[in-house]
Amino acid sequence: MPNFHTEHFDTLAYPSTFGETTFLYEARSQRGNILIMASMGGEPILIRIHPKKEGGFLVKGDKATRPTQASFLQKVLIDFRDASNAKEIFSNIEPKKFLHVKPSAYLKEIGFFAHSFQPEREIWIEIGFGSGRHLLHQAKKNPHIQFIGLEIHKPSIEQVLKQCELQCIENILVVDYDARLFMEFLSSNRVGRIFVHFPVPWDKKPHRRVFSASFIEEALRVLHVKGTLELRTDSPLYFEFTFSQMMQLSKAEVHVKKNAELEITSKYEDRWLKMEKDIYDVVLTNEIHSEEIERLGTLNFEQNVDFSKIAHAFKEELLRGDGFFVHFEELFEINAKSGLIRLSFGANERNEKCYICIEEGKVSYLPNAILATKSNLAAHTLIKEWFDGICH
């Protein structure tokens, strides 16, 4: 993350423009932390300033606002440094190190699947594609299928994107997102196969596994009749856990294999085979046609709130529901009527980190595109109840 350390900085006049950046406002918390809202290229970017125990300040971008180009954040930090006469102690924002992200037609943000994805072909999904051997092999073998690859390991994503371009493979879309929630973004009865090959076993933390009752339920909804959900693992515990989850279904067609040979093997499978480990396959076949669901929207607030009451009553607080939570972390004051609340919320396994912006009574999320997944919607309802409890 681009950042710099400084002994001091001058307070800016707001709003003001310096270089390519417009600085809109400043907000401060009781902990002494500072947020500065900036804008470059039409994108909002929050600068976060932390006082350091040993003196001085750490100045960096806030993770809640991630610009499409990392170089935007570097340039904003440089403009703030120069506009505020900050003297650097340490910095990694030099122009020679500007971070440019090469766009790829194969890489999609989750919002694309929430709002724009309308495939005309059958879909196959691979969760945690790793080196991409299996995903690339299947895509080349089945050009009539639309593949979606989910992965959170950035080097693996870059490797597959590069191979798609080098080999002219046009039927793969890649997304960096938690697979346990991704199914909510897909239409019913559109998927033919879901591959989960050699997931992290999480033997000591089974709650972190991809497979769960809710994951299997969503997988069956998106699969068409005779579509399959397929686990391949070297972990006997993961195999037994998944099989037991499938056996809890009221009706299920499940096939189990041991040490079956595939046309293509992953680098992990090659490793396990050299170690003479057993490989387990469990395949669940869907037999039910599911009802269609509405496409996910975004979360919005309808009510107005009194920021002065919120500021007076605010405290760091963690609220929990069934499978979701809301953590109110820190309040920042812009003026007596406006401010920001830093919070995280959503599913226990994956959560949103964002701000709630309150300006003259109006409430919105920052960034303003929080998707209405089941867990996010439940948390959003709890947040609105929290506001009502304070303001009414």
From TrEMBL:
The reaction(s) this protein catalyses: guanosine(46) in tRNA + S-adenosyl-L-methionine = N(7)-methylguanosine(46) in tRNA + S-adenosyl-L-homocysteine
A cellular component term, taken from the record's GO annotations: tRNA methyltransferase complex
Keywords, in A-Z order: Methyltransferase, S-adenosyl-L-methionine, Transferase, tRNA processing
Functional pathway: tRNA modification; N(7)-methylguanine-tRNA biosynthesis
PROSITE patterns: SAM_MT_TRMB
GO molecular function: tRNA (guanine(46)-N7)-methyltransferase activity
This enzyme's EC code(s): 2.1.1.33
Binding residue positions for substrate: 204, 234
Pfam families per UniProt: Methyltransf_4 (PF02390)
Cross-referenced PANTHER family: 3-DEOXY-D-MANNO-OCTULOSONIC-ACID TRANSFERASE/TRNA GUANINE-N 7 - -METHYLTRANSFERASE, PENTACOTRIPEPTIDE-REPEAT REGION OF PRORP DOMAIN-CONTAINING PROTEIN
Function: Catalyzes the formation of N(7)-methylguanine at position 46 (m7G46) in tRNA.
NCBIfam families, per database record: PRK14121.1, tRNA (guanosine(46)-N7)-methyltransferase TrmB
Homology family: Belongs to the class I-like SAM-binding methyltransferase superfamily. TrmB family.
Protein name as catalogued: tRNA (guanine-N(7)-)-methyltransferase
Source organism per UniProt: Sulfurospirillum barnesii (strain ATCC 700032 / DSM 10660 / SES-3)
Lineage: Bacteria, Pseudomonadati, Campylobacterota, Epsilonproteobacteria, Campylobacterales
Gene (name only): trmB
